[in-house]
Amino acid sequence: MQESVIFTNVCPKRLTENILDGVQAKIDILKAQFQPKEPTEYLTRDEVKNLLHIDLSTVYNWTKKGKLQSYGIGNRIYYKRHEVEQAIIPIQHS
């Protein structure tokens, strides 16, 4: 069964404005929820070393201990920049 909507005392201009406002509100919600992802930035071991101002052996040790997650392609090792930055934890001072 088809439903009918009857508009009374509504001018066409106001009806159009209401419809457009409703559509724009839905578009704004969708834009907020579906932001394009930024591409993942991959860093080499040397770039991680320079970023954190540490020795290359420290990068190796932190990877071995699981403090840094590494990814490999062939014989190349990479780190995701956001994961390296997340590995830095705040120090609690008493």
Q: What does this entry look like structurally?
A:
Strand 2 and strand 3 form a beta hairpin. The chain has 94 residues and is α+β, with helices and mostly antiparallel strands. The chain has a domain of 45 residues. The relative contact order is 0.11. Helix content is 49%, strand content 13%. The mean pLDDT is 89. The chain has a three-stranded antiparallel sheet. It is elongated, with a radius of gyration of 27 Å. It has four helices and three strands, in the order H-E-H-H-E-E-H.
Head-to-tail CA distance between termini: 70 Å
Task: Choose one word for the global shape.
Answer: elongated
What's the mean pLDDT score?
89
Q: What structural class should be given to the helix and strand makeup?
A: alpha+beta
Question: Within the largest sheet, what's the order of strands?
Answer: 1-3-2
The helix/strand series, from N terminus to C terminus, equals: HEHHEEH
Binned strand content: 5-15%
Number of strand elements: 3
Specify the biggest β-sheet.
Answer: 3 strands, antiparallel
* Uncertain stretches of 5 or more adjacent residues: none
Q: Fraction of residues in helices?
A: 40-55%
SS summary, helix count: 4
Question: Could you tell me the radius of gyration in angstroms?
Answer: 27 Å
Question: Summary?
Answer:
The protein has 94 residues and is α+β, with helices and mostly antiparallel strands. It has four helices and three strands; from the N terminus they run αβααββα.
